[in-house]
Amino acid sequence: MSAPLRIGAVVLRARPVIVAAGGEAEVDALTRADGADVVELRADLFADPTVERVREALVRLRAGGRPIVLTARGADEGGRPMPEARRRAIYEETLGLADAIDVEIASATLLETLVPAARRAGKTILLSTHDFRATPPRAELLARVDRGFEAGADVAKVATHAATLDDLQVLIDVTRSVVPAPIAMLAMGPCGPLSRLVLPAAGSLLTYAAVGTPTAPGQLPLATLAPLVRELFPS
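Below the sequence we write its predicted structure tokens.
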């Protein structure tokens, strides 16, 4: 029997794992993050995202005791612009302080070296795709999920702008089609708040919350989301 999929010590299982997300301004809040299972540090949201600044933040977060996802989101998928060489250096030189990485599926050149390095280091690999304009058709979303697993994802992560319940239904259908393969499905925009509970009910392993300024449109505050998850998804 294969070992269960984890981020650090947190097992990804039927109850959704709550990820508290933030950038440089939220590091103190992330170290507390009451109700979160995991924290995500968005390195691209630093005012000056140097390797040293990100390393210092990760060291502070390690003191909080929760597993850490390191993300340096590319500008094409919602991150703040930074030189690609710096983005690569942040991932490669601080990898040892994170428990997982989140990288866009479209960052093919970066993934060629980063995925094997993360695998050797025993880190969980989330490969993601984001659409801030619309929810693509079901077939396109399934193709993106396939590309994520082909590129080495432990968890394929999909986030789209969902303006209507029809959009949300597409995301539910894709999630249910992929499960039991490990999927993290999220809606941004008007249906974002509802999606943080509905998509985990369909099988999404992760649900994200804000501890300060939201890192994506439609993200609920951690203090709102955590009690709902604990109530609706008992261990």
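Helices lie at 27-32, 51-62, 84-94, 108-120, 138-150, 165-178, 192-202, 222-232.
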